[in-house]
Amino acid sequence: MCAEKSPGITLPDTIVVVDDEVEQRQILEQSRPLFYRSRVNNLSPDCQPALLKLIVFDNPEKMLDFIDKYLPEILGACSDKTMPGMMDGIECLKRLKTKYPQLPRMMISASVNELRRSEIEESGVHLLLPKPYNDIDLTLIGPAFRLIKLHKK
After folding, report:
1. pTM score of the predicted model
2. What's the rounded Cα separation, in Å, for the pair 42 and 62?
3. Do 98 and 88 form a contact (C-beta atoms < 8 A)?
4. What is the pLDDT of residues 122-148, one digit of tens each?
């Protein structure tokens, strides 16, 4: 029996990402087929998780508003750390931690090594994704969020 088919356990299927850089959003937009094809190799076809949706935002406020509206469908949220001229990723993820502590959160940063432990703890980050990332990194986001979500139930 697979967990996702068990009574009372349903998992959302949408991952939201915010990044202020046009090039990074384009890379994510082009990676959408990776999320749609995301499968777990060792599960039988009837136990496969739902295919994932990816929604990319250029502004953290837009992403937060979307999550407020569609929370039951959100599997996890990813935020770039540095977004000049707007709310940074630390503040964005802190707000999510406060309002929706059960929602898995990931920080994306070109300077992962420069992140302070206090920043990571304050924002409640579950995962860190260093830039530049590749297709393999992106295909692991969905399964990682699913594991965090199941663990928190």
Report:
1. 0.79
2. 37
3. no
4. 888 998 888 888 888 888 888 888 888
d(CA 64, CA 38): 25
Which residues on adjacent β-strands are paired with residue 17?
56, 78
Please tell me the number of Cα atoms within 13 Å of 1 on its side-chain side.
5
Distance, C-alpha 30 to centroid of its chain: 16
**Length of the chain (residues):** 153
Alpha-carbon distance 94 to 79, whole Å? 11
Q: Are 141 and 147 in contact (CB under 8 A)?
A: no
* Chain center to CA of 28: 12
Which element (helix H / strand E) includes 54?
strand 53-57
Question: Token pair for residue 78?
Answer: 């990813």
Residue 123: name the closest of 145, 101, 138, 143 by CA.
101
- Cα pseudo-dihedral 71, 72, 74, 75, rounded to 10: 130
CB 81 within 8 A of CB 41: no
Element (H, E) at 130: strand 127-130
Residue 15: strand pairing partners: 54, 76
Tokens 């993820």 found at? 93
